[in-house]
Amino acid sequence: MNKLRIRLKSYDHRILDQSVKSIVxxxxxxxANLSGPIPLPTERSxxxxxRSPHVDKKSREQFELRVHKRLIExxxxxxxxxxxxxKLEIPAGVYIEVKAM
Length: 101
Known about the structure:
Layout: E1 3-10, H1 13-29, E2 33-50, E3 60-75, H2 79-86, E4 94-100
Antiparallel strand pairs: 1-3, 1-4, 2-3
């Protein structure tokens, strides 16, 4: 295993940046060569619903859902780095996808 690609997704950019910071600090502590964090485009979903249950079609409300994403690439990965990354405490609102290349 020579290279890891880590994609992180979250609705809240603050906890996403905290998670990215802890991953980068852990990788640097073990001497990994890394590139990133690279901010990927934010997915934005807009939902429009009627405010009234019966009439008033013109009265609507809009809700927005944003998914923030970051990418980190680790090169020259050792088993020690993988063990350290597995032991990290990541907040509940962050989805992590790891791909070995």
